[in-house]
Amino acid sequence: MDNFGFHAPTQVIFGKGTEAQVGALCKEYGAHKVLVHFGGSSAKKSGLLDRVCASLTAAGLEYVLLGGVVPNPLLSKVYEGIELGKKEGIDFILAVGGGSVIDSSKAIAYGMANEGDVWDYYARKKTITASMPVASVLTMAAAGSEMSNASVITKDEGMLKRGLSTKYAYCKFSILNPELTYTLPAYQTASGCTDIMVHTLERYFLNNDCKALAITDSIAEQLLKNVMRNCRVALKNPTDYDARAEIMWCSTLSHNDTTGDRSFGDWACHQLEHELSGMFGIAHGAGLAAVWGTWARYVYKENPARFAKLAVNVFGIPCNYDDIEATALKGIAAMESFFRHIGMPTDIHTLIGKELSETEIKELAYKCSFMQTRTIGQFKKLNLEDMENIYRLAK
Ligand code: NZQ
Ligand code: ZN
């Protein structure tokens, strides 16, 4: 078995009404003046923002508000946050929202604590050495940013989406109240569940058995089954607390390395998807559903047994020991069938409402290859031509 690491330093406060503790927690983590960062209208409409502000005031903390984060958060908003943060002398950033708001907060925190243009760090020109403290009140179970080391930002010019993972990006604390997700539209619930599942799938598809651990595989398989079961329940009854709670905790566990060390993971679907949501502004989880099946059929021959294991252990498909590849393919079809069942697209034209043109395919692949300077994926290494092929097959 290969060596691995585990680092998950975020304090989690889980359950009903826990957002009332936010002021006291910010104070405990050393805040004096907080930048409260949020998205469009959902946190205002639900009254959450007012409750958060009341809790900060009750703890004797000053705060300034900055809303307007859009899904697939933009660099221009990050610059606005850095400028406001410096002007107002803030020393703590509180994200109230989903993955986009948390990621925008992490980028502002980097910009506050590191010299120069924050984009240079996302563009791999410089290395992050510090961050201002960030915490979150999560309103959407999906990205896992509440306990991950990552943030993903889109540069407005050229719509270039780039992720950055560092040990400085972990939230100090994350408040997870499943009730806050009751108001999610069905599409966002399904997209979030897909993202949660793909965070585990990216880690599950190892082509080197030395990297697999039986306990980790079992956790991953149970998490996938649990998300599928509870996603169906939450779509039928959006205010089912237990279903929302299961999904929310799976979101966090799926991306904090409990279901596998991220450095062993494949991540090709994420890289392919980030270019799609960067270019077309679509929901990240839906984009993952649109490419996952095509990716899986493109690569499964590298280690069909791994895909057959998913088919048997997650979907209960009987193993055909004379034809492992047939079992693997049935598992891929079952996963796609689930995505369609919850209203997710399993091809790109259903995702964006049109077929990709050849020019778009080439642009997406070129950006995804970091202008032809990298391959993606570990299960099977994919070069520029492979990326074009997958976009073409999924279009
Ligand atoms: O802006 P508001 O009005 O809040 O509406 C949001 C937004 O339109 C809405 N929403 C969120 N909570 C709600 C709600 N609507 C009603 N009730 C609520 N309780 O949902 C929409 C989507 O929100 P967003 O934050 O964009 O979704 P998500 O959490 O899926 O985040 C997606 C972003 O995270 C990145 C993605 O690439 C994408 O940019 N990722 C970040 C990761 C990380 N940092 O570790 C890993 C992921 O793989 C992912 O790449
Ligand atoms: Zn994701």
Question: What are the main properties of this structure?
Answer:
globular; six-stranded parallel beta sheet; binds zinc ion; alpha/beta; two-stranded antiparallel sheet; 395 residues; binds 5,6-dihydroxy-NADP; 16 helices
The strand count comes to 8
What is the share of helical residues?
40-55%
Fraction in beta strands: 5-15%
What is the H/E string? Answer: EHEHHEHEHHEEEEHHHHHHHHHH
**Rg, Å, rounded:** 20 Å
Structural class: alpha/beta
Which molecules other than protein and nucleic acid are bound? 5,6-dihydroxy-NADP, zinc ion
Poorly predicted parts: none
How can the largest sheet be summarized?
6 strands, parallel
Form type: globular
Spatial strand sequence of the major β-sheet: 1-8-5-4-2-3
Q: Report the span from N to C terminus.
A: 38 Å
- Average pLDDT rating: 97
Question: How would you portray this structure in words?
Answer:
Helix 11 (284-299) packs across helix 16. A 6-stranded parallel beta sheet has the order 1-8-5-4-2-3, sandwiched between helices. A two-stranded antiparallel sheet has the order 6-7. The protein has 395 residues and is α/β, with parallel strands linked by helices. The protein starts with 10 loop residues before the first strand and ends with a helix. The chain is globular. It has helices spanning 22-28, 42-45, 48-58, 75-88, 99-113, 119-122, 186-204, 214-236, 241-254, 268-280, 284-299, 304-315, 324-341, 348-352, 358-368, 384-394; strands at 11-14, 33-38, 62-66, 92-97, 134-138, 150-155, 160-165, 173-176. It is built from 16 helices and 8 strands. The longest helix is centred in the middle third of the chain and has 23 residues, at 214-236. The structure holds 5,6-dihydroxy-NADP and zinc ion. 5,6-dihydroxy-NADP binds at residues 39-43, 71-72, 97-101, 103, 139-140, 142-145, 148, 150-152, 180-181, 183-184, 188, 192, 195, 255, 270, 274, 277, 284-285.
